[in-house]
Amino acid sequence: MLSSTVRNSLKHLTKTASYSTTGSKTLTIGLIPGDGIGKEVIPAGKKILEKISESTNLNFKFIDLEAGWATFQKTGEALPDETIDILKSQCQGALFGAVQSPTVKVAGYSSPIVALRKKLGLYANVRPVKSVAGTGDRPVDMVIVRENTEDLYIKEERTFTDPKTGLRVSEAIKRISEEATRNIATIALQIALNRYAIKGKSTLTVTHKSNVLSQSDGLFREVCKEVYQSKPEYAKIGYNEQIVDSMVYRMFREPECFDVIVAPNLYGDILSDGAAALVGSLGVVPSANVGKDFVVGEPCHGSAPDIAGRGISNPVATIRSTALMLEFLGHPDAANKIQKAVDANAVENTIKTPDLGGKSTTEEVTNDIISKL
């Protein structure tokens, strides 16, 4: 899925990996289960990495790390400094499970995954949404590239009393910067170039709401166009724009029309979660949080407290996210083996969790995919 340009921009990640005398490479991966079903699916990702090491020159070390609502309740910190320090100093990548955030304001608490993305400079969230040939699903093959550091997710809000009415008013700042937009447009176009090399065609769709938000979304739209026009090799990529509300409509009515979609943080979040319905479940859609010097694989689903502890959560999104992490770390062959094993499980369509209409457990699905490696 990635272009060599994207992989080369991250090649220094693997320089810190250790090598044996036989040429095998050891990567240190941080494991952050978080809350709810994160504690059930992250072990599946670990098992997949342990298995893939048997047929590649990759070896893995794992460091268990803490973050999440349960961590906050225990320590008063949702994302302990120790977790960040270890990720920066010892790990080449990480797997993050899920976060169970309270629905009401809790003093001192903020989402650890949002903070993690900021502290590690993970400016892009890359979410492939693809149906599997042979399963009877509609043909879907798109990549949603979501800006990961700003927009409304900077969490600069205030609530005050309107002196005229005496009633409360809340405001939130939406921040769009040229720097962040250039970064996200560049990686989206690099992914589109790679897809062009594979398929012979590719299109970038810039999603915005500049007809209403003329300055913030207007800047996002303008900068994306500037980046597209900045290099002659981008000319082979089709370019179009889509207002976010019509984008949602068209994505569900004619998903085959879309290839690479780039969007500000909030729209990208909504689009990528909604697109999961096109391929069966949030439980099968992966993502990679990508920065200039780190990668975190993260399934798109939440903590699912209603099924946590029952052993029926779908591990596929985590397993695919594990493959994505490896791909961004420069190991596409290992990543491709994992993706093919997941595809084989989907085509057989017999061992699957309840969200896909099956009766299998998390462990049974994981073991079936491992058997196909």
Mean pLDDT: 92
Query: For this structure, what is the CATH class?
Result: Alpha Beta
Number of helices: 12
Helix fraction, binned, reads 25-40%
CATH superfamily annotation: Isopropylmalate Dehydrogenase
CATH topology: Isopropylmalate Dehydrogenase
Number of strands: 13
Strand content range: 15-25%
**pLDDT below 50 for ≥5 consecutive residues: which ranges?**
3-15
Number of domains: 1
Output the structural class. alpha/beta
Report the end-to-end length measured between terminal Cα atoms.
Answer: 20 Å
Rg (CA only)? 20 Å
Q: Biggest sheet: strands, sense, closure? A: 11 strands, mixed
What string, H for helix and E for strand, traces the elements in order?
A: HEEHEHHEHEEEEHEHEHEHEEHHH
Instruction: Tell me what the CATH architecture is.
Output: 3-Layer(aba) Sandwich
Overall shape: globular
Cofactor: Mg(2+)
Protein name: homoisocitrate dehydrogenase
Family: Belongs to the isocitrate and isopropylmalate dehydrogenases family.
InterPro entries: IsoCit/isopropylmalate_DH_CS, IsoPropMal-DH-like_dom
Describe it.
The protein contains twelve helices and 13 strands. It is α/β, with parallel strands linked by helices and 373 residues long. It starts with a helix and ends with a helix. It has helices at 4-9, 38-52, 69-75, 81-90, 112-119, 178-199, 216-228, 244-253, 265-275, 316-328, 332-348, 362-371, and strands at residues 18-19, 25-34, 58-64, 93-98, 124-130, 141-147, 157-161, 168-172, 203-208, 238-243, 260-263, 288-290, 295-297. It has a single domain, classed as Isopropylmalate Dehydrogenase, CATH 3.40.718. 38% of the residues lie in helices and 19% in strands. The chain is globular, with a radius of gyration of 20 Å. Helix 2 (38-52) runs parallel beside helix 12 (362-371), helix 6 (178-199) crosses helix 7 (216-228) and helix 10 runs antiparallel to helix 11 (332-348). The strands form two sheets. Strands 1, 2, 3, 4, 5, 6, 9, 10, 11, 12 and 13 form an eleven-stranded mixed beta sheet that branches. Strands 7-8 form a two-stranded antiparallel sheet. Pathway: Amino-acid biosynthesis; L-lysine biosynthesis via AAA pathway; L-alpha-aminoadipate from 2-oxoglutarate: step 4/5.
